Amino acid sequence: MEQEKQLQIEEAVKTILTAIGEDVDRDGLKETPKRVAKMYAEVFSSVQEKEFTNYKVFPSLNEDDMVLVKDIEFYSMCEHHLLPFFGKAHVAYIPSDHKVLGLSKVARMVEFCAKRPNVQEDLTIQIANLINEKVKTKGVAVSIEAEHMCMAMRGVKARGSVTKTFHYQGVFKEDKDVKNDFLRALD
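RE: above sequence
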């Protein structure tokens, strides 16, 4: 993050702390604005990166069988309250043209999409769209299950509740048997 933006965040954090009645000069808070600016640079890193480039496509014998990467842990920030939501993403695709993604790149795609202010419903679609953009597929399915701090620590205080979202493209949307294979594989 460039120095000017870091300083803007630091000043904004000082303003918030002052507005809630805190003393920004007390020992426990003196370095907080710097720490928050550094943390924001990390958790919102994809905002500055306009395109995902950290992937590789490999030749494969597979052209008709589902590839599923399950239980990809992620952390994101709710764009409505700037509070975390976190959980697991499950990503499946059916390759085309005998090309597959490196498995770790699927997890990197989830991370890339998560590192910006977001809502879970959109994050689910963004991951599927990114996979289709980077590798030709016959279809993509993405499911996310997450806990939202905006629900757990404020408002309704629904601690432990999990939100599940699903998005299907291509054969996962068109063929109920393929979709059901994906859903069964999640159990």
